[in-house]
């Protein structure tokens, strides 16, 4: 008998213009402005058993406009503003594409 893996439900959400106001090539945590109601909506999804996965194309890294360290600081600011303080059970999972080209494949395992 082959063991079955439990399936997880997930929501994939873009960062810029969906969770936060779009700031061209956002590289400074001070530029992060979360849309009103986003934290509450994500909390409802999490409580309903969904994994919340933020996907974001960050071609500014590949183009040399900002560093991955700067990107991670912005990512942390988004999480903080959404109230994601529990490192043991984070509200958000992040997948970013730091390349300058538009082609990408995200592979996610649950």
General description of the model:
The chain has a single domain, classed as HAD superfamily/HAD-like (Rossmann fold). By secondary structure, it is of the alpha/beta class. Helix 1 links the parallel strand 1 (9-14) and strand 2. The chain has helices spanning 38-47, 59-62, 68-81; strands at residues 9-14, 50-57, 92-97.
Q: What profile does the largest beta sheet have?
A: 3 strands, parallel
Q: Could you say which structural class the secondary elements and strand pairing correspond to?
A: alpha/beta
C-alpha end-to-end distance: 21 Å
Looking across the biggest beta sheet, what order are the strands in?
A: 1-2-3
Coarse morphology:
globular
Could you give the count of β-strands?
3
Write down the CATH class: Alpha Beta
Name the helix and strand elements from N-terminus to C-terminus, one letter apiece.
Answer: EHEHHE
Into how many domains do the coordinates divide?
A: 1
Task: Give the full name of the CATH homologous superfamily.
Answer: HAD superfamily/HAD-like
Give the radius of gyration.
15 Å
CATH topology group: Rossmann fold
CATH architecture: 3-Layer(aba) Sandwich
Helical amount? 25-40%
Average pLDDT:
81
Q: Strand fraction band?
A: 15-25%
DSSP summary: helix tally? 3
- Uncertain regions spanning at least 5 consecutive residues: none
């Amino acid at each position: 008998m082959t063991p079955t893996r439990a399936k997880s439900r997930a929501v994939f959400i873009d960062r810029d213009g969906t969770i936060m106001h779009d700031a061209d090539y956002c590289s400074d945590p001070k530029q992060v402005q979360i849309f009103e109601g986003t934290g509450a909506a994500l909390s409802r999804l999490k409580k309903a058993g969904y994994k919340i996965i933020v996907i974001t194309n960050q071609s500014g890294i590949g183009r040399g406009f900002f560093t991955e360290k700067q990107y991670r600081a912005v990512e942390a600011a988004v999480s903080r503003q959404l109230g994601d303080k529990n490192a043991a059970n984070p509200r958000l999972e992040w997948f970013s594409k730091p390349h300058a080209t538009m082609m990408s494949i995200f592979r996610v395992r649950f």
